[in-house]
Amino acid sequence: MKKTEIKYILLLLSIFTAYVTFEYYRPKPIDWRVTYAPEDNIPFGGMIMEDILLDHYQDNVENSYQSAYEILDTLKSEGLIILCNYFSPDPEDSNALLKWVSEGSVLFLASEYMDYFMDTLDFELSDRYLDTLNLSSFKEYDSSYLKFVNQEISTPKFWFSKPHMSRYFSNLDSANTTVLAINEEHEPVIVEKSWGKGKIIISLAPMALTNYYLVKEENYKFVDYLFSYIPIRAMHWTQFYQKGRMEPPTPMRFILSQIPLRWAYYLTVGSVLIFIFFRAKRKQRIIPVIQPLKNASQEFTRTLGNLYFHNQDHKNAAEKKITYFLEYLRSHYYMDTRIRDEEFYELLSKKTSKPRNKVDYLFKMIYHIQSRDTISRDQLFELNTKIDEFYSLRQ
After folding, report:
1. For residue 395, what pLDDT is reported?
2. How remote is the C-alpha of 14 from its chain's centroid?
3. Domain that holds residue 330
4. pLDDT digits (tens, 9 = 90+) for 200-252
5. Terminus of the chain with fewer CB atoms < 10 Å: N or C?
6. Which residues, including other chains, have CB under 8 Å from residue 10's CB and lie 6 or more apart?
7. What is the pTM for the complete model shown?
8. What string of DSSP letters covers 34-68?
9. 181 and 318 in one domain?
10. What is the sign of the dihedral through the CA atoms of 280, 285, 286 and 288?
11. C-beta neighbour count of 206 within 10 angstroms
12. Which of 347, 259, 381, 271 minimizes the C-alpha distance to 11?
């Protein structure tokens, strides 16, 4: 690995470490999501409610992310808890729930908005927040209370934010319905509906069961009062209708669920992709091929030699052949061909690995041709043959 690549990797690791450290020690913003989940300790989670229920039912509380249709066959002596903002089961779930309750089970449903499920129970819902003509006077910090209706004992008032207590039942089937809790306007908010051998307890104030309100004053008693109307030994809490079908937790799911880790992961992946892109671009850049400089003098000599040969000028052709040969010795073996003595022949024989007698004979022929004014065609052929043998001869 090159030093430049190591520098890039160290730089990315430094950025990643600095970002994770910064996000870890930075004050975490409050998570205001409404989950009602028993594992969430955020303001609108349900961790405190689960703790109260575990005490109330002696640890016989189970959680799942399955629909009612999937789990009702396994619930024999357990009640079912559903908390959500909008309860809209499909027909299969709705029919399965009502059939299961009619056989003697108990359903606790807390939701602000419901669709045709309320029509099935012959209930009508209203919203004081939407019915208020002067909405500007309906402040978020205004408070309202819920009070359980119990003729035998006096129950306290539990205070909540008014926007979260705006829903109420405007029309009830009084024959099979009992009002359990009312708001400050004496409108029913929590009711109990008999259905076959079982019953359904419906609350239009699910936010009253979140951590945000249960930590205030004695609001934790609200859960005890509410579930005292469900005298069974165990409960099953499904989160399917609020959080959906959650997949099994994995390390990657945990990383993506935490804001600091999620952004650190995105930053790392983005940096690596940018690094790979630019590095690949450098690797794939076309490098032009630079051809080595040609020995133009050798090409020129060879061309002229062939020209003289075809014109029957054997002397000039031989001279060009000799010139080309001497240039070959100078360029390949770095021999000084101006002085051709015994030392020259001996050195050439060693460098070329040619027999000394072959070297002597060739240069005697060269000397003979250079000393004559003209030569015959046969002498030219012999010179060409001996030079070619010199090129190809191996000791």
Report:
1. 42
2. 20
3. 296-392
4. 999 999 999 999 999 988 899 999 899 999 888 899 999 998 887 765 556 77
5. N
6. none
7. 0.58
8. B---TT--STBS-HHHHHHHHHHTTT-EEEE---H
9. no
10. negative
11. 23
12. 271
Same domain, 47 and 23: no
Do 227 and 50 touch, CB atoms closer than 8 A? Answer: no
- The residue type found at 269 is V
Euclidean distance between CA atoms 183 and 158, whole angstroms: 10
The segments of the chain whose pLDDT lies below 70 read 1-5, 131-141, 151-153, 174, 246-250, 253-254, 257-258, 280-287, 293-312, 393-395
The residue to which tokens 């209203």 are assigned:
126
Say what the pLDDT of residue 206 is: 94
Residues 17 and 37 in one domain: no
3-state secondary structure of 113: strand
**Number of domains within the chain:** 3
Select from 260, 250, 254, 258 the least CA-distant residue to 17: 260
Element holding 131 (H helix, E strand): helix 128-131
300: its two tokens: 């020129």
**The residue type at 251:** P
Angle 62-67-73 (CA atoms, 0-180°, nearest 5)?
70
Terminal CA-to-CA distance of the chain, rounded, Å?
47
Count of alpha carbons within 13 Å of 128, Cβ hemisphere only? Answer: 21
Burial class (CB in 10 A: 0-12, 13-18, 19+), 372: exposed
HSE of 206 in the Cβ direction (CA atoms, 13 Å)? 24
